Amino acid sequence: MDITEKLNVDLPYFDWLLQELSSEEGSALQEVAGRNVHWGYWEKPVGADLSPDAISKATDALTWQLINAVEPAPASKILDVGCGFGGTVGLLNANFEGVSLTGLNIDPRQLEVAKKNVKARSGNQIDFVQGNACELPFPSDSFDTVFAVECIFHFPSRDAFFREAVRVLKPGGKIVLSDFVLRLAWLPVTAVIFLLRRKALVTMYGAHIKLACRSRYKFLAKKHGLDWIVARDITKNTLPTYDAIERFAGTWKEQEALIRSANRPLALTSRMGALGYEILAFKKSAASGSRAI
Question: Residue 116, Cβ neighbours under 10 Å: how many?
Fold first, then answer.
């Protein structure tokens, strides 16, 4: 039994995406989601360009929001947890020198795509590793920075991920992530909207998805001895993503109804202020070592 079977990995949208990409090489889907499988960031979201090239650039722009939040130093050792198709590793590889980059994912299919997508340039090192975000297969004090780009809601436990991320970080190291963040005041409304579209959401994204409020992150930072250094709400800059999904849904007739049905409750709650999209970064104390927990 491999690790994916052991943990009963449920990634229906990746199942579909991998199948489509294998038969659509060079297509618009390849350009939009062949490297990054996350939301885009538009500096000017009103009237945003939704061409495949613009969407691809917007997904890179979102990754840059995380990179700029932690400003990796030259010769850093960086771990990208939930690395997907290698987009973040590839962007770091192309723009930083002397770095050691490790992409981790529980799904070996995604890792195979990442290995094809990204080759280390001269002076850099790249490894792609299959593993569980809540049981990181690395020694303590191994990395300067840990990334988790729009994936933490897939993990079995945010608490376990933070524990492990802190363990593998060197003293003074940083964690940076992007996540959909629930707004406490809107929770009853959000719950009703999501319940009404639950079948579509589960069919598209899986039954395991766990969302959190910002208060949860405050608790986790305190519990694991982290300083909270960045909290940026970029919801408005990501909103064109929902329009892009609506536009391209019609390209895949077999999945069109499902894609639209799952997209609309997310778009609605995001636009009404009930669901935010945030960049969050934390720092491990420079004086602390890793603790066995």
Answer: 11
